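Write out the 3D structure for:
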Amino acid sequence: MARVVLAMSGGVDSSVAAHLLRRAGHDVIGLFMRHGEVVGSCATSENAAAGQLPILAPKASHKQGCCSASDAADARRVADQLDIPFYALDFSEAFGRIIDYFVAEYRAARTPNPCVKCNNWLKFGKLFEYADSVGAEFVATGHYARLTDDSHQIGLRRGLDPGKDQSYVLFGVARSLLPRMMLPIGGYRKDEIRSLAHDIGLRVADKKDSQEICFVAAGEHAEFVRRRGDDEDRTGQIVTTDGTVVGQHDGVEGFTIGQRKGIGVALGEPRYVVRLEPDTHRVVIGSREDLARSSFTAGQTNWLTRPPTGPLRCLVQIRYTSRPAPALVEPLEDDRLGISLMEPLHGVAPGQAVVCYDGDRVLGGGWIEDERN
């Protein structure tokens, strides 16, 4: 069997993934990625100075959900129970790139997706560097997605549980890495994973799923961006689609396309954020109908199959929780896409990923550039 580096978060999914890999006979190394905001000091290995990934002792405290000290302790206990080696790695420096991206996108009046970037740059980026350093053939995670061998080509497909499918956030992984990836729980439903965790006596069997961004407390992303700001005044007007000023706001970083709650104005009927203007700092609000978009473009594409050379009919998904919609996708210059929707979609947000599917197979995708009709 193979040596496998497994990203362990201390949650039930990656814990059961460790069990399944061990049951299959693999040599598993569990790694906890400490990648939130740094709190306190930490001890690194002597190898850090040589450019190798450092190993950390657990920190006394950490305020974030999926990379806290308690999560690291949970992951370590699971590793001890399953008799696999376990290390906590300091990814804080590399993760600074993701935080910079997050802040820059909100400043530019775009809606970032740091979870996708984390998968691209860290979980299926830096972890492969570590895997190579320890002679591991594979990197595994607890994502709800599947890998299949389609005519000797590895394909990424939706997870078996439609309510937990995470294939959307994996679209940006390099195609060349698919043969070295393992997704052990993708063929299970969530209730089966919890049941299996109970059967083997894991303490994390009933642990709640992490929902928030690991480096920002829920509902505090705007303040997070402002703390790391460049002192530019991003306050501005809240206006309706006809240009009528109806309020003021503290910064465009507090809004995203499709937002309904927390806009700060009451007009007697539901209003949504339909456009953000980074140059004027205006937040434009309107009706749900004003959110409808029939076409948009995307850039920085990544393909997990052979890239299309002409118009392609497929399904597209514009957010992690949105339903796939039929569309005509056409390749453009500079690794860009033109997407024409068969029926309008609501809440197309610049900065989010658009992922293309053929049935349940991920074809590829890109990053939404604009939200115009």
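Residues 38-65 have pLDDT under 50 and may be disordered.
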